[in-house]
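Step 1: inspect the first sequence and its tokens.
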Amino acid sequence: MMVNMVHTDEKLARQAASDAVTGLGWRHVLGTLMTSVPVPSLVNAAEAGAAAIAACGSDADGHLRLDLRGDAVQLVLRSTAAQAITRLDVLLAEQISAALADRGLRTVPGVARRVQMLEIALDALDIWAIRPFWKAVMAYVDEGPPPNDGLMDPSGQGPTIWFQEMTEPRPQRNRIHFDVSVPHDEALDRIRATTDAGGVVVYDAEAPAFWVLADPEGNEACVTTWQGRD
């Protein structure tokens, strides 16, 4: 059944969005709803993508993004107009999962293609002095109006860039790090895998919002979730 009666732009809090879709095989990741659909071929991926688009009807353009591969389709829902997860996105997730189930396909996180999103964080003494450089060299656009200083790939393919203000130089510490946003129920497994690979947790006081991990030479990355941020 198409969504043609309930067109609500009501933004959902992180907890509400996560609770609404977790049982469907979708996950809340960095302000989006994401899932992966395992498929045996690129032809099947195209068919699954078409089914997802049809399930969204006229709302597909403003809410749905797809990435088709030979082993999986990655689906992302987020309201382009609201720049947030809305109640309509949850309804579309329900409809997509049902339409794919009718074709013997499943919406599942972390199977075939890992459900996650990547951000690049730059430490800066003067954010607005260095921001134009990164905007130009990456050919990015503003993520939102000021005071939002984030930059984003206009094609929606590359990682977003955000800036973290420093109060004093830190010459012995890396000033660019990755934020890896993962489903809330996968964070501890990701951290365990990282420490098994030689990493150490250097900061966890604000977990489960984020953990800071470092490699054996002190280069840092953060594993983040939506939790603890409302």
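Step 2: inspect the second sequence and its tokens, then contrast the two.
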Amino acid sequence: MQEYKVVYDASTEVLSEWALPAVLLVLVAVGLVVWRYPGLLGRPFEVIGRSVGAIFACVAALLFVIAATTLYMDNSRLRAALQTGSYRVVEGIVTDFVPGDPGDHFAESWSVRSGTSVHHYQYVASQATPGYRRTLPHGGQIRNGLRVRIAEVDGRIARLEIRR
């Protein structure tokens, strides 16, 4: 019997992709401060400061709602799939591994042959998407020759296990 170690599980993972909504919340606060204290922008902007602040806060709030809702729904979908068993199991050896770079300019990519199918994976650590996306420079554990077992949901890695 082959033993696997779980290195990623969307149902227990703390959401690290919430940085974008957090930044948007800060921008909402900045807009509200400018709206409340229009003189902060300087004397020429005192007249339009309230309008600029209100528009800035509203746009940031709208973007926050869109980003937070999208992230929450995508992550909930992965978690639900794991709970109900609604995922495809991909098991095999990692091949064609191309590591990402430390600056996240290039995606990390690799393949796994499972049965008669070849499954390709590609991700960037800095993308705000749920699912496994830890690249080698950011502590990722994927390498050529590893035997892995993946719970895949719509091409995303909901759970990643590596053979010990």
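Step 3: confirm your contrast with the notes below.
The CA atoms of residues 122 and 134 lie 11 Å apart. The beta strands are 4-9, 88-98, 108-114, 117-123, 147-153, 156-163.
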